[in-house]
Design brief:
six-stranded antiparallel β-sheet; DUF6438; Mago nashi protein; 149 residues; 31% strand; alpha+beta; DUF6438 domain-containing protein
Length: 149
């Protein structure tokens, strides 16, 4: 049976967008049972969708990471959801072209928050916090993608 109004899935996502070169382009979704779905789009070892399992507790660790780094604040000053308005972007101190956009999304019950950031944007408050979060997420992806990237 299908519910009349199904609840949203709980998921944490990490995505890397394209650049003008050979930047890896993929989406990585992590679920509460520590299973993941990897969707390779370009410049990765495997193109397409693949499933796997992370180490036990990985999902909760990533939730703790966003909780401990004021993700709600970052999602308000950075891109929020699908908004790309000028008022919803990080104010770059300097900007270099040809960098990918990286995003982290958190969907828990009815709450959905996203932080998207073009890596060419630098020299702004909270930059190091954001870059550390991206690096930690990417480490989880690389360590657990089992030859996909």
């Amino acid at each position: 049976m299908v519910a009349d109004s199904p609840t949203k899935a709980q998921v944490v996502s990490f995505s890397r967008g394209a650049c003008y070169g050979t930047c890896p382009v993929y989406d990585f979704y992590i679920f509460p049972d520590d299973n993941f779905v990897f969707i390779g789009r370009a410049h990765v070892d495997k193109i397409g969708a693949y499933r796997g399992t992370l180490e036990a507790g990985a999902f909760q660790s990533l939730i703790n990471l966003v909780d401990n780094n004021n993700f709600l604040k970052l999602s308000r000053i950075g891109y929020f959801g699908k908004s790309n308005s000028e008022s919803a972007t990080f104010k770059c101190g300097s900007y270099e072209t040809d960098h990918p956009t990286v995003s982290i999304g958190v969907q828990l019950q009815e709450m959905e928050l996203t932080v998207a950031h073009n890596l060419g944007c630098s020299d702004f408050p909270d930059e190091q916090v954001l870059l550390k979060m991206f690096a930690t997420f990417e480490q989880v992806v690389v360590l657990n993608s089992k030859g996909l990237i």
